[in-house]
Design brief:
The structure holds 2 protein chains of 2 kinds. By secondary structure, chain A is of the alpha/beta class. Among the domains of chain A are: about 240-350, Succinate dehydrogenase/fumarate reductase flavoprotein, catalytic domain (Flavocytochrome C3, Chain A, domain 1, Alpha-Beta Complex); about 440-540, Methane Monooxygenase Hydroxylase, Chain G, domain 1 (Up-down Bundle). Chain A is built from 16 helices and 22 strands. In chain A, the strands form 5 sheets. A 6-stranded mixed beta sheet of chain A has the order 7-3-2-11-19-18, with helices on one face. In chain A, strand 2, helix 1 (about 20-30) and strand 3 form a beta-alpha-beta unit. In chain A, helix 1 (about 20-30) runs parallel beside helix 4, helix 1 packs parallel to helix 11 and helix 5 (about 220-225) packs across helix 15. In chain B, about 50% of the residues are buried. By secondary structure, chain B is of the alpha+beta class. Chain B is elongated and about 60 Å long. Chain B folds into 2 domains: about 1-105, Beta-grasp domain (Ubiquitin-like (UB roll), Roll); about 105-235, Fumarate Reductase Iron-sulfur Protein, Chain B, domain 2 (Orthogonal Bundle). Chain B is built from 10 helices and 7 strands. Bound molecules: flavin-adenine dinucleotide, iron/sulfur cluster (SF4) (2 copies) and FE2/S2 (inorganic) cluster. One iron/sulfur cluster binds next to helix 5 and helix 7 of chain B.
Chain lengths: ~575, ~230
């Protein structure tokens, strides 16, 4: 426990999902890089991504990057920064070809080109009809890209520190110069001294009870940035994916609807026709999630209960086996249902965080004034560029990871060699040692799991698909109460050193409790409905008062809110209909 | 229903020898064994260590031995194990135990890295994608399902006797690149596994195929490699 390990590198990348690995591939040739991750690289959450990665290759039907950019802006309910969306859409084809060259085994068309399929919110001619834009490898696209990028890192001899959790940033005079990490195998504290740190720690769906996210998605990187007084952006925008397996939250990819799957209510009615007449089941996720919740509220859930059916029975066994085999097997394993014969019970599940660490187009993290924080980068789901605005389109995340992960890497290669190494403060890990000692000294009180469960339920109930002022305020009271309890009575059942997952979960819970509060405060401040943020008491989008990003940061012990303008270049906001 | 879990416990820092501990847990038939392990850890005994991440069979973290068979705890349902009087949960065999159900996977990942798990595409980089026919791509369909859970390696009798044997999953990863029509180093790759500790180490016990949670035809894939060695190198 008291040993200290010091490592010195040019840059430290935290997180080995696609964002972290893509940045690592970029920097491996030019800088001395250390990659730290809570899990072995191939076990990162990105491996769960099923459906595909968006790029207007036009391999199956005409498509263009402008349409992709428009869909991204409209999908984000005009909160998307259009300069960022343009970078994303323009760079998409290059990014996908690059992945192909690295070895990603995409599915193929009969002529040997990369196969593409339809996905929610992807359209041709600025909203006219669905278009096939998602490049995929069956329904394990994320996994094969993860494996491929990991292979690239192996080829480049990248140094990985697996099963180390970063528990603090080292900041000196406003400059980020390293991280503190805990080794799960031994509970040793490691100090990493670097010229720059890239956070690629992924999302934090574990704030919610029902989620498609893995256990590691606790938002540690986002929490650390906030704790050091730097701003987070658009934290109220939490995506609920319409088709989580009922009761479990395990995802049934949108690819299921892209391949022709249909949602039905208790009367067998294809209800999306009423909510999105042009593209029906392939409307953006927020639209479909709300439609499902409406059906359930109005008593048209299956047997009057809180789920609807996703019907794939007409797709045929062969198509299911070829393109949706993993999800067919999830359904078989967890529900005992054969999707070729019976419909799948589904309900919305917390899936993706649009908000996160505020960054510029080069992945540089920004302070409240919008100036780059020296030494700090962020990419992937933990960052907010903001390319997804108020609601992310399917397949745009994987694209975001490889496009902006690479850009962050490029920027580090350009800047870091000329940067000075800020000296390490003598007490760099002092705060961490105190935090750990505090957690370990108490021998009775409340277990972390109890507090986490209460947080997740409260967030689910009052900050889910629909929200209201009174609900958010009640939840805020609850969450602050839980934070108090955490401070005063949380205790570890196990205080040993080896693989102390009890300790790990207690540390992660602090991230979750803080991010829960930040989400609620942000959501309460946005008195309108936009994208995934849907207020019962303010059902309309209000561009006059709220066409801006939310910033939230900590000043001393107080939470403060600010705003940031949206970049609008090509597309003026207009009503969003599908 | 209520179930008994008999779980392997060992903390090399304090225990001289491994032991077993029994826990009683309430569980629904449709719940995962992983849910039960979590409930034990969260409600009864925080000192129990195991790995997990995705919770639905795509990351490979929570491979353990359940009632003598290597499997993913998140993909094994309570109803699949409830017949046993006591559900026996142990770490993957053949690996060094670091703590309870957590084993040292470094030698495993080392072997995966040894097969050079990356495409060598040659010098010519086209502007767009390299073409690959749907049939060529189909050859990889099954092996790209591998999640590196190591269930196969832990179950392989050859691995148990000879720790130099490359083992099933690394051979699956070798297959992945040997049979990718875009790769330019097929011969070199074949030569690397044309050894007694490589492809020829496999003695067709089929244990790997039986336990693979992703239903990859592991043994068959290894035999394809052997056949390809005969065809290309002899
Ligand atoms: C089921 C599912 C299906 C999806 N399907 C698609 C899809 O088809 N298309 C699409 O575009 N998007 C999809 N998404 C979204 C997409 O997968 C995620 O947004 C994306 O993978 C996030 O990648 P990342 O690199 O930002 O982080 P992650 O892949 O989440 O990786 C985070 C990394 O950070 C590490 N880490 C976290 N905290 C710490 C810490 N404190 N110390 C050290 N390391 C830490 C973790 O170990 C991990 O390696 C899907 C998401 C889910 C849940
Ligand atoms: S088939 Fe080969 S690799 Fe598989 S268990 Fe048997 S000997 Fe091991
Ligand atoms: S081949 Fe199967 S059992 Fe072996 S590591 Fe891969 S997924 Fe696991
Ligand atoms: S937790 Fe990922 S495979 Fe079981």
């Amino acid at each position: 426990m008291s040993e200290r390990y010091l490592h010195t590198h040019d840059v430290v990348i935290v997180g080995s999902g696609l964002a972290g690995l893509r940045a690592a591939v970029e920097t491996a040739g030019c800088l001395d890089v250390a990659l730290i991750s809570k899990v072995f690289p191939t076990r990162s959450h990105s491996g769960a991504a099923q459906g595909g990665i968006a790029a207007a290759l036009g391999n199956e039907e005409p498509d263009s990057w402008e349409w992709h950019m428009f869909d991204t802006v409209k999908g984000g309910d005009y909160l998307t920064d259009q300069d960022a969306a343009e970078v994303l859409a323009r760079d998409a084809a290059r990014a996908v070809y690059e992945l192909e060259h690295m070895g990603v085994p995409f599915n193929r068309n009969p002529n040997g080109t990369i196969a593409q399929r339809a996905f929610g919110g992807h359209t041709r001619h600025f909203g006219e009809a669905p278009v096939k834009r998602a490049c995929y490898a069956a329904d394990r696209t994320g996994r094969v890209i993860l494996d491929t990028l990991y292979g690239q890192c192996v080829q480049r001899g990248l140094h990985v520190y697996p099963e180390l959790s970063v528990v603090d940033l080292v900041v000196r005079d406003g400059i980020v110069c390293g991280v503190i990490a805990l080794d799960w195998a031994t509970a040793a504290v490691h100090v990493f001294h670097a010229k720059a740190v890239l956070l690629a720690t992924g999302g934090f769906g574990k704030v919610f009870k029902t989620t498609s996210n893995c256990f590691a998605n606790t938002g540690d990187g986002v929490f650390l940035v906030y704790r050091h007084g730097f701003p987070l952006q658009d934290m109220e925008f939490v995506q609920f994916h319409p088709t989580g397996i009922y009761g479990l939250g395990v995802l049934i990819s949108e690819a299921a609807r892209g391949e022709g799957g249909v949602l039905r209510n208790r009367h067998g009615e294809r209800f999306m026709e009423r909510y999105a007449p042009t593209i029906k089941d392939l409307a953006a996720r927020d639209v479909v999630s709300r439609a499902i919740m409406k059906e359930i509220q109005e008593g048209r859930g299956i047997d009057g209960r809180d789920f609807v059916h996703l019907d794939l029975t007409h797709l045929g066994r062969e198509r299911l086996a070829e393109r949706l085999s993993d999800i067919s097997s999830f359904v078989r394993i967890y529900l005992g249902i054969d999707p070729a014969h019976a419909p799948i019970p589904v309900q919305p599940t917390c899936h993706y965080m649009m908000g996160g660490i505020s960054t510029d187009l080069h992945g540089r993290a920004l302070d409240v004034q919008g100036r780059p924080i020296p030494g700090l980068y962020a990419a992937g789901e933990c960052a907010c560029v903001s390319v997804h605005g108020a609601n992310r389109l399917g397949c745009n995340s994987l694209l975001d990871l490889v496009v902006f992960g690479r850009r962050a890497g490029q920027d580090m290669c350009a800047r870091v060699p000329t940067m000075d190494r800020s000296p390490l403060p003598a007490d760099a890990e002092e705060a961490t040692r105190e935090r750990l000692a505090r957690l370990r000294e108490r021998t009775q009180g409340v277990r972390p799991a109890v507090l986490r469960e209460r947080l997740q339920r409260e967030m689910m109930e009052r900050c889910g698909v629909y929200r209201s002022q009174s609900g958010l305020e009640k939840a805020l009271e609850t969450v602050r109460g839980l934070q108090e309890e955490y401070r005063h009575s949380v205790y570890l059942d196990y205080r040993g050193d080896r693989y102390n997952t009890d300790l790990m979960e207690a540390l992660e819970l602090e991230s979750l409790l803080t991010l829960g509060e930040v989400i609620l405060v942000s959501a309460a401040s946005r008195r309108e409905s936009r994208g995934a943020h849907s207020r019962e008491d303010f059902p309309q989008r209000d561009d006059h008062n709220f066409l801006h990003h939310t910033l939230v940061y900590r000043d001393e012990e107080k939470i403060r809110l600010g705003t940031k303008p949206v970049s609008i270049t090509r597309f003026q906001p207009k009503p969003r209909v599908y | 229903m209520e179930l008994s879990f008999k779980i392997f416990r060992y903390d090399p820092q304090v225990d001289r020898e491994p032991r077993y501990e029994v826990y009683r847990v309430r569980a629904e038939a449709t719940e995962r064994v992983l849910d039960c392990l979590n409930r034990i850890k969260w409600e009864q005994d925080g000192s129990l260590s195991f790995r997990m991440s995705c919770g639905h069979g795509v990351c490979g973290s929570d491979a353990v031995r359940i009632n003598g068979r290597c499997a993913l705890a998140c993909q094994t349902l309570v109803k699949d194990v409830a017949q046993a009087e006591e559900v026996l949960v142990e770490p993957l065999p053949s690996f060094r135990v670091l703590k309870d159900l957590v084993v040292d996977l470094e030698p495993f990942f080392e072997k995966v890295r040894w097969v050079q798990p990356y495409l060598v595409g040659g010098n010519h980089v086209p502007e767009k994608e390299r073409l690959q026919s749907a049939e060529e791509r189909k050859k990889l369909d099954q092996v790209i399902r591998c999640i590196l859970c190591a269930c196969c390696v832990a179950s392989c009798p050859v691995t148990a006797e000879n720790d130099r044997f490359l083992g099933p999953a690394p051979l699956v990863w070798a297959f992945r690149y040997i049979f990718d029509s875009r790769d330019r180093e097929k011969e070199k790759r074949l030569r690397a596994v044309d050894t007694q500790d490589g492809a020829w180490g496999c003695r067709n016990h089929f244990e790997c195929t039986r336990v693979c949670p992703k239903e990859i035809p592991v043994t068959k894939s290894i035999n394809f490699i052997k056949r390809e060695i005969e065809k290309v190198l002899r």
